[in-house]
Amino acid sequence: MIVGGDPIGRGVVATCSYEARRFGIHSAMSAARARSLCPQAIFVRPRMEAYREASRQVMTILRSYTPLVELLSLDEAFLDVTAATAEGTLAVEIARKILDRIHRETGLTASAGVSYNKLLAKLASDWRKPQGLFVIPPQRGLDFLRRCPLANCMVWARPR
Predict the structure, then answer these.
(1) Which of 16, 42, 92, 124 is most exposed, with minimal Cβ within 10 Å?
(2) Which tens digit of pLDDT belongs to each residue from 5-46?
(3) Distance between terminal CA atoms of the chain?
């Protein structure tokens, strides 16, 4: 499934399913190019109001764990849970609780990355998509980056 504009016109891919991504389709690609890569794809128009409402629900859940939420987009955010972890709670426990609550309260699945800086947290969240959790502890950060294939590590930097 591809969400975006008309593949016959000048439409652009806003996002797509993981199945479509296997064909090389990604956001910001022309819809015509996406159609040529995956002729059997189903194209649907964006439903921005529904996306905003789902985002509002998820962000409310995130803010219930920490006020330090940095939004990246409708479906991505960084959380600083330093204060909660100072009390002995592990960041990975918080991430598990958040993923469970998102699914339970919205029916949506989510992925989470846990690490000591935003770059590694973002890479970790992409590592186990969809619906995964990946942790990169401080002592493994540099080793993870050394082993990380450039294409996987840079996927987040692609224009959306």
Answers:
(1) 42
(2) 888 888 999 999 989 999 999 999 999 999 999 999 999 999
(3) 17
Q: How far apart are CA 28 and CA 18, in angstroms?
A: 15
User: Which of helix, strand or coil describes residue 29?
Assistant: coil
Global pTM reads 0.80
Strand 43-44 relative to strand 133-136, pairing: unpaired
Write out pLDDT tens, residues 73-87.
888 999 999 888 877
Marked catalytic residue, from 19, 53, 70, 76 = 76
Q: Checking phi first, is residue 17 left (phi over 0); if not, alpha (psi -120 to 50) or beta?
A: beta
93 in active site: no
